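Thread: quick sanity check before group meeting

JM: Hey all, I'm pulling together slides for Thursday and realized we never actually wrote out the predicted structure for the chain we discussed last week. Dropping the sequence here so it's in one place. If anyone has concerns about the input, flag it before I start.
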Amino acid sequence: MSDLIDGQYDVFKSFLDKDTPVEAIKKLRLFASEDVIKRIMERYDEDMVRIKEMREPHSVVIDNYETWYAGPHPDDKLWPAIEDDLIKQGWPRDPAINSLDDSSTRIVSLLQHPRKNEFSTRGLVVGYVQSGKTTNFTAVMAKAADRGYKLFIVLAGIHNGLRRQTQARLIQQLVEPNPTLWTQITDLDRDFSPTANPASFFGKSNKTHVLCVVKKNATVLRKLVKWLGDASEYLSDCPALIIDDEADQATVATKSINPLIRQILNTLPKSAYVGYTASPFANLLIDPSADDLYPEHFIVNLPKPHGHFGTEVLFGRYALDGEDPTDVDDGYDMIRNVPDDDVALVRPKTRADAEDFYPSITDTLRRAVLYFWLTTAARRIRGSGNPHCTMLIHTSVRTAVHNSFRDPLMLLRAKVANNLSDSALRRELRDLWDEETSRVPAVEFDEKLVSFDELASELAGVLRDCRIVMDNSESTDRLDYENGPVVAIAVGGNTLSRGLTLEGLSVSYFVRTVSTYDTLLQMGRWFGYRNGYADLPRIWMTEELEDWFRHLATVETEMRRDIDVYMTEGKTPMTFAVRLRTHPSLRVTAAAKMKDAVSALSSYGGQRVQTRYFRKDADWLLGNQAAARALVKAALGSSRAEGNGVDGRYLIRDVPSEFILDFLRNYQFHEKSQECDAKLMSGYIEKRIRNAGTLRRWNIAVVGKPAAVEQNLFDFAPGVSVGRIVRSQFASGIDHTDIKTLMSRRDAGLDLDGITSATKEGDIAKARKAQQPDAGLVVLYPIDKVSEPEPSKDKRKPLNAPEHVIGVGLVFPSPANDDSTVAWESDYISADLSGVEIEEEDFSLLDSEDI
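JM (edit): ok, ran it. Output follows.
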């Protein structure tokens, strides 16, 4: 019987290639019994449940959405060809190809069946920068084509370079393995231009799939809209898949591109629109009620690929609520700081200065370039991984600035090439190489250490092969990876900052100013895979930019966690809104794309917040010391302190809330610590007291080192003295320091019984709900003003504050009933950037075909 069911099930799946599940069952009834049909449908339902409940990728899907695709068939043509190509490229079956297979199957299952009479699907796929999104949507296109989708339109960014690169990838993986199955109406060197008799592409006589790769360019898209309109009578049976690569760029809230994309979709009776992006901030802020491109049917959160260098890996991030900060990594030691004084030497201050600007080869730029040549020589010795070697210099959006770098860089190359035997230069190169390889040991990445003596013999050849390339909208000398191994220093702007892959990128020098999350994230061309040289990448940037990227890593992680949480809670794209953490110096996305955004309501219920940023101002720090001492003294007036300082901890229970509110009025939180907004926290406490009668009482803990060494004590009040703790700084700004980590998991349960350092976060929350359901906890930390880091903390440096620092952590209990939310102040939506010249992306060329 099982063999019969197997055979009939294969027949049923073959019917699904041409029919919807309902029609396939009707055909099955012509020769199968109802019992057999029931068994087949049970098996089909099991397959659908398996697809819907895949562990990866996570997805949020509209209610009652029909899933029909159960995965590839043995006789498919297009997906197996991609598998073969990836195997030839060296992709491992597990996890890389299997993960791609699963994620593309899940996405195709969320498209409508191609045989439905009419449909219009809107979806969004969230990936990572340089993580293989092109390969993913190529796999989706292959599987959709194997099941009967006919027209494929790929919107490939706004520049010719990315359009050409995408066309080349699709030709390689889709067309060349099965040339008889495809008709191309664009090619490597030609964007869309109308052809005669468009109906011939979509009539019944043409059995091939139609491929069109176009820029998001108004002139090109208008031609495409008209061409499709001329074939409208033939499109009723033409299932179409539109892939919008870099879906947050030019698609959202633009006057020309957005309406034209919607016109294309309106021309197609059977259309599925799927946006792909690593920076979906703008897409998630589209008004869901408008006739627009909001992903109303599904959002898919692609898993982080194995071996991918992403924001968090390189820059580290801050702990999210519920995480132990000590479990969050600081990132690799691959970031090198460019002093603020150097910036004016490599980037003009104003637009007016750009034409006559001549950059200097500063010490940091010289080190970056020399290190690039050293890494290229080392990679030649290793002889593995990507054959290309690229360095990126990105200081400005302006082409005149790019061009000004040519002569200084060529002069530097000539000087180094002519003086390789000079003892001073060789000593400089050796010291640079030894320093960098000691800071990031090759063995930690399972790579072979290449000594300076080994690579020195390759340097002459590297310098001879190295090209200086100006890649911008006006240049003709572009990066070309199609004609053999490349060694290049690429200087550019927007053409190098979106979608385009810089092959073998190992060194970046980046001081470009930006104003939004999405632009900043997409400019991180250094993200991606570094097979064979994972220990060698370096990024030179300002400390401010490093801080911004670390913040962005936190935003990314929080956004993806929201998507995952909403999936488990049964939410849909129309019933949830992903929260996007804001930043005082950056907008989430361009102002036009935020017109429908609203301020998120914030609840401190169940939250743990802590100070991380501190000013370097002595008066500011002394004021916070006074606020902490006043709180402890006031608390001791109503309660007794538990502890004697032997273990460095004191606890004062049942402190009236007015003392906490006084402390919040007096203690100064740094403006970068958005979650530690004294006004918001006070408002929340007052609402909880007024609405639910909770948070009237608080517990106060003091945490320091055991009070054994008298000279290292910090006195909060008579009888409450502890040793100062060490919290070295992770990064330093102009007027502030960032310690990243303050509270441990155990500290969040200091007023609870049975809590140890091994107690899990969830168990601490349960214990608080059982033992202290209505009381909050304030933890005070005296931080030594010097705070030398441990030798193993290679990304840390001494705090070196003018006075001892008071860190504060607050733990709010989870409410038993509806919480009292408070709205974030509008100051946190975007900063006043009027005093800073910000080089925004220039979309004025969207009407020109020559970009």
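AS: nice. The chain has a mean pLDDT of 82. Residues 543-568 form the longest helix (26 residues).
JM: adding both to the slides.
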